[in-house]
Amino acid sequence: xxxxxxxxxxxxxxxxxxxxxxxxxxxxxxxxxxxxxxxxxxxxxxxxxxxxxxxxxxxxxxxxxxxxxxxxxxxxxxxxxxxxxxxxxxxxxxxxxxxxxxxxxxxxxxxxxxxxxxxxxxxxxxxxxxxxxxxxxxxxxxxxxxxxxxxxxxxxxxxxxxxxxxxxxxxxxxxxxxxxxxxxxxxxxxxxxxxxxxxxxxxxxxxxxxxxxxxxxxxxxxxxxxxxxxxxxxxxxxxxxxxxxxxxxxxxxxxxxxxxxxxxxxxxxxxxxxxxxxxxxxxxxxxxxxxxxxxxxxxxxxxxxxxxxxxxxxxxxxxxxxxxxxxxxxxxxxxxxxxxxxxxxxxxxxxxxxxxxxxxxxxxxxxxxxxxxxxxxxxxxxxxxxxxxxxxxxxxxxxxxxxxxxxxxxxxxxxxxxxxxxxxxxxxxxxxxxxxxxxxxxxxxxxxxxxxxxxxxxxxxxxxxxxxxxxxxxxxxxxxxxxxxxxxxxxxxxxxxxxxxxxxxxxxxxxxxxxxxxxxxxxxxxxxxxxxxxxxxxxxxxxxxxxxxxxxxxxxxxxxxxxxxxxxxxxxxxxxxxxxxxxxxxxxxxxxxxxxxx
Amino acid sequence: xxxxxxxxxxxxxxxxxxxxxxxxxxxxxxxxxxxxxxxxxxxxxxxxxxxxxxxxxxxxxxxxxxxxxxxxxxxxxxxxxxxxxxxxxxxxxxxxxxxxxxxxxxxxxxxxxxxxxxxxxxxxxxxxxxxxxxxxxxxxxxxxxxxxxxxxxxxxxxxxxxxxxxxxxxxxxxxxxxxxxxxxxxxxxxxxxxxxxxxxxxxxxxxxxxxxxxxxxxxxxxxxxxxxxxxxxxxxxxxxxxxxxxxxxxxxxxxxxxxxxxxxxxxxxxxxxxxxxxxxxxxxxxxxxxxxxxxxxxxxxxxxxxxxxxxxxxxxxxxxxxxxxxxxxxxxxxxxxxxxxxxxxxxxxxxxxxxxxxxx
Lengths: 598, 360
Description:
The complex is a heterodimer.
Chain A lengths: L16 E4 L2 E5 L10 E3 L3 H4 L3 E5 L8 E7 L3 E9 L13 E5 L2 E2 L11 E10 L2 E9 L3 E11 L11 H9 L8 E4 L2 E4 L3 H12 L4 E5 L24 H4 L14 H13 L4 E5 L1 E9 L2 E9 L5 E5 L2 E4 L5 H6 L3 E2 L5 H4 L7 H4 L11 E2 L2 E5 L10 H7 L12 E2 L10 H20 L7 E6 L4 E2 L4 E2 L7 H5 L7 E5 L3 E6 L12 E6 L4 E4 L11 E3 L8 H4 L5 H21 L3 H7 L1 H9 L12
Parallel strand pairs in A: 12-18, 13-14, 13-19, 14-15, 19-31
Antiparallel strand pairs in A: 1-2, 2-11, 3-4, 4-11, 5-10, 6-9, 6-11, 7-8, 7-10, 16-17, 17-18, 20-26, 21-23, 21-25, 22-24, 27-30, 28-29
Helix pairs in contact in A: 3-13, 9-10, 13-15
Chain B lengths: L38 E8 L8 E8 L2 E14 L4 E10 L5 E5 L16 H11 L34 H5 L7 H11 L2 H14 L2 H9 L3 H9 L5 H4 L1 H10 L2 H10 L2 H4 L2 H8 L7 H12 L6 H8 L7 H12 L6 H12 L6 H6 L5
């Protein structure tokens, strides 16, 4: 239900606040001071917005604060959009309260299953400066999407698309972004593939926008997820050494050191225009071409339209292609689709009939042993997942794939399931005498995905290209890493925790990926690099690691240069300019600009 | 002390083809009844790098029934400089899964310093060989010794760079290369394929029934993989039992492969759906996927499942509501169950029912 607009004006220039008559909507991610709460923009496409989360690993985090100006005095009903992320016969783990002008409202929030507007209470407020605070009660991932104050007693709409429409109207948001910028190449996704793509293109003179929805670059290799890079460098050792990691243990804080290196290297290119904390939300098309990509700042709400002749989808989930209408694949193909049998592994490797048992997502974590005992709260809500499993760290085997969970659509539930597994397994370890000094050092709150959408190119890379060690005239990526496909342990043994996986290895000397797997078959100006490249489920098993995806990125960046030079689309690089392209690829050992700089 | 793991004592032969005197293997995990004599037949040989002679694999039969496979193996175990010869006897079940090993007379297993294995070492080796997810799976021989400084907490993505320390935790102490060699024999893909292919050739009704009745999940799955269309009718009680008792992988396979003409029978749907509450989360989704694409769904089946709505997770609830929305033969009991679920404050996803404007 929409509020009647009477004339309550937005006053603050600093907040992502939308006001109408006798009502005000405050987006939590835009708080002046988030305190110990973190901005989580991972699930915008599913639940509608970035949100603040109290990721305290069991210790309540510092309050989040913000100020806004209220136009009119009155009695306001206060609604908070939140979610009980572990509903059951126990107190909700992510409980919090809200305080306005120092007065804490009585209702405890974060207690309703599913995203919804929870009623926090009513309060009399005077017009003018008003202060708002979020008070975490648990440290267990309470979450707040938005706060709505209204003199009307009716709650805002719960579900999309009504909620999205309501939000747009509340914010008086125009249909298109306020700012429009032009580039030679727009790269979306700042993982290793996206960074490599930006560097390769920028070195040859292109003006590149690199859009990334996190504050730091690296994706799965960032300090926020902490997976080390694997694979070989191929033709791009010089570029990839600027971006990759040491072989530290997954989850290690050594990831910070490599992240500093990565940022220094990307930021030194003046023609890479870095947009960290910007999340793309749409791709605009004209026919079969993308004309622009729209992105929104993850906390400030500002929007930019990025125009370019060509785009690189390195989002991992293939969002740009998806929005533009690119053909894509998801799930495991049947064994006969591409003839990808690995006889001794049968259904675990490739099913007789296609299904959605893709490789799962991981959430890494670490503990530390203190000198003295450390208290840890009871976590009954975690035990249904962890059961009796004990652990003090997360490894690559901490992975979730389930038939009822889509790796994109249900990513928040996957993350939350892994959090339950972590808290519960840790609590079990702490119950032992030797565990009393244990404390959490770090838990990622980002989902580390292995597999999601794969955009379809002119060539679909499959297991057969590995077994046959097939060479292509356009082999731009090479790899010696095993094909490494995962399955959930409980498929073979129901007693195993559902959050642990196992790997199947197919060892191989060397294989190659053609350039034709790195551009869309039906969106004429779209490249892809990263796990969303054109491959089968099994084909992804080997080259999904980050030096290999980095090779893809660099290859695509170079192709964009050829495109720019001749004013052509990605396909024509293969059909008309392959020799020049391959020469440029093979010269990448040295910083060698062949194409004219702009 | 050596632990004899065999559930039943098995009598094996050690001589050439034909009937021979029995003896007890060190480790043998198949519950096979004691027989006076077994017969063995060579079914094939395998030669790979590192072997000093082909591995000859034998089928062991009792009362003309195939029981398991075995092989007397003579292989080299080498580190960077020295090679030793190792003698061992290895056992696999009828689908090629490792089930045990034994020493060969006069040739006890030894460590690299020539010290003989202790009882604990033999136990440890069997434990290692029973672990199909061992870290050894991911390693080349050259990676067993990490010349770099070892990090105590090193954890890797199952692909490269495991430290010697990690490996040490899994292998028999002082017998790294023996452990490595034997694990890769126990899980040798070519051997597994050879054995399962041979069993497939032997598959008759008696063997099929035996595999279906077995507690070994690998046997069940192998049987269903080799079902012919009519077998779903012939062995209905077996596959229904497997849906209830077997591993999720087998359940999923069965649900995918029940012939349409059978599945479209109300009684079959009812039999399957009556087991809904026994199913793991993935099997429940497999069943919903099947129901979603079924032209006709028994109203009784829907009713069975509806009594468990409150045990469903969010996506299952959505999927089930989708199914019943497309079904116009809902029973009064189904409607009541859905209504009560919506009103049940203990049910976390009642709001999903409310959102549907459920109107009875």
